[in-house]
């Protein structure tokens, strides 16, 4: 086994977003909480007779009937940002350096929800930034903890955060979205994707980890809390109602696994969406983001663990930079579009708003949609299977390794097109690809990509593109368009 000499408990523990700060390290090396998030909330209530679930909920004024109006009266409003409530799990210690990640995507006075802290903010968190979600401090649960005696006190804290979210944000809410304070969410895409699901039914949405062992350690059928756990409102309500049994039965599981178990007992199973990224990965994430699944990106977790996704930037700058494109067209963000320049036998692969790759050989989409393995798994092992997807290792091969460009700027033309510009990150330092005629692409320094200003939320088929020009000055132009009916991308 790959993990023979790996301390599994330690690996799992570090996956937890709070690993450096919390008692979990001492109390429960085996409990795993991987970024998990939320949910532990419920735990809290259960074992405390003075704090029964019904009592809690009547305090919250979430009567059974008040959760159903969407079902009983047809809702003429398409899903919009006011129907989503975010619960972002943070801590006083982490939020000082993580708040910039949330602020990059949070829309003040539009997005609803809170960042949950363990203690009151101090120092440079005050005065509280108007660009951050408002904060809430979790209630003191010590009494309850004494009674429940879970292996990890962290879980009740997270559960309590969920209660606060319910208490304060139930008016008109259709979806509850739990994440971490180092999770980037893509709100426009969430709205587009969740619109396809009936929020009056029971939906449990998320995605397993990209790292195989995370799913083995926890569960292949769970939504990981850092990538995000998305619950339709009535399902969240049902979970709350069942909380006491749930917590009594499963309180020693990780928070996201407990969520899965309790939802399973209610009758709900995971609806997996590939745009959710737990990312129990380390290092350079660019290979994955340059061959993103053909699904709208919904979240990116472990922003604080992965290298900054753009070269020469810190993580905060990278988050802000990404949202320059993400605020214009999230539907195309990271969507991979491939076309060929037949004169030189080059292949262009554009990950919109993020990167452009140029290969000195005609390559098929079937091959390029496989991510380049620039990143590592969570542990030390190098023995596959590491990832839940296949990877390429083109390093050092002039016919397989791309010239790499990263998103630099975005502008709108007078003809209502979007231009994104990608700049070379570094010389490739390889000879030209001889097999396809020694047409070096080393001189290409910038790639301008034209795309429609119309968003494309239905990713039924990838887009195609044309290489409009390659100038000796080093500028290349590519134009995205719908594929022709019989077009083959190869
Ligand atoms: C969102 O929908 C609600 C009804 O649920 C409506 O009152 C509100 O105006 C809509 N907001 C936007 C920004 O469209
Ligand atoms: C949000 O709303 C509050 C109160 O209406 C207002 O004072 C504040 O300026 C708004 N913040 C932003 C960033 O628009
Ligand atoms: C959880 O683990 C603790 C410590 O091992 C134990 O005392 C407690 O009974 C367990 N709870 C459940 C519900 O199994
Ligand atoms: C490419 O260059 C190499 C070395 O310079 C040479 O041996 C080879 O014949 C060239 N290939 C083509 C197709 O011109």
Automatic annotation (TrEMBL):
It comes from the Eukaryota. InterPro entries: DUF604. The chain crosses the membrane at residues 27-46. The keyword Membrane applies. Keywords: Membrane, Transmembrane, Transmembrane helix. PANTHER family: FRINGE-RELATED. This is Uncharacterized protein. It comes from Cinchona calisaya. The lineage of its organism: Eukaryota, Viridiplantae, Streptophyta, Embryophyta, Tracheophyta.
């Amino acid at each position: 086994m790959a993990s023979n000499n790996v301390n599994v408990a330690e690996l799992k523990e570090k996956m937890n977003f709070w690993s450096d700060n919390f008692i979990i390290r001492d109390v429960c090396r085996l409990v795993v909480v991987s970024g998990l998030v939320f949910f532990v909330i419920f735990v809290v209530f259960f074992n405390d007779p003075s704090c029964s679930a019904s009592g809690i909920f009547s305090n919250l004024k979430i009567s059974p009937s008040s959760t159903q109006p969407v079902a009983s009266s047809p809702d003429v409003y398409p899903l919009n940002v006011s129907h989503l409530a975010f619960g972002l799990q943070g801590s006083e210690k982490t939020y000082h350096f993580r708040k910039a990640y949330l602020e990059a995507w949070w829309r003040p006075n539009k997005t609803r929800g809170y960042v949950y802290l363990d203690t009151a903010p101090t120092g440079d968190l005050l005065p509280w930034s108007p660009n951050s979600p408002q904060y809430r401090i979790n209630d003191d649960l010590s009494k309850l903890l004494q009674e429940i005696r879970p292996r990890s006190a962290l879980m009740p804290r997270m559960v309590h955060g969920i209660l606060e979210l319910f208490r304060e944000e139930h008016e008109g809410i259709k979806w509850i979205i739990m994440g971490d304070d180092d999770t980037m969410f893509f709100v426009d895409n969430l709205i587009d994707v969740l619109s396809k699901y009936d929020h009056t039914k029971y939906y449990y949405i998320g995605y397993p980890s990209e790292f195989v062992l995370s799913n083995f350690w926890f569960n292949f059928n769970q939504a990981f809390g850092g990538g995000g756990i998305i619950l339709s409102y009535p399902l969240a309500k049902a979970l709350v109602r069942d909380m006491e049994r749930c917590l009594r039965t499963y309180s020693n599981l990780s928070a996201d696994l407990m969520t899965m178990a309790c939802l399973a007992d209610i009758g709900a199973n995971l609806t997996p969406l590939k745009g959710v990224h737990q990312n129990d990965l380390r290092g350079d994430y660019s290979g994955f983001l340059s061959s993103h699944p053909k699904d709208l990106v919904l979240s990116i977790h472990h922003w604080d663990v992965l290298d900054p996704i753009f070269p020469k930037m810190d993580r905060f700058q990278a988050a802000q930079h990404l949202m320059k494109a993400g605020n214009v067209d999230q539907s195309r963000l990271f969507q991979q579009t491939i076309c060929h320049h037949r004169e030189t036998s080059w292949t262009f692969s554009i990950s919109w708003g993020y990167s452009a790759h140029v290969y000195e050989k005609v390559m098929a989409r079937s091959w390029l949609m496989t991510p380049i393995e620039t990143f590592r798994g969570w542990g030390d092992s190098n023995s596959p299977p590491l990832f839940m997807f296949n990877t390429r290792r083109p390093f050092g091969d002039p016919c397989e390794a791309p010239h790499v460009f990263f998103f630099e700027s975005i502008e709108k033309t007078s003809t209502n097109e979007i231009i994104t510009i990608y700049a070379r990150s570094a010389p490739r330092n390889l000879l030209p690809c001889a097999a396809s005629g020694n047409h070096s692409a080393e001189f290409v320094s910038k790639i301008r990509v034209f795309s429609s200003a119309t968003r494309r939320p239905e990713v039924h088929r990838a887009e195609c593109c044309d290489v409009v020009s390659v100038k000796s000055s080093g500028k290349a132009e590519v134009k995205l368009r719908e594929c022709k009916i019989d077009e083959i991308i190869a």
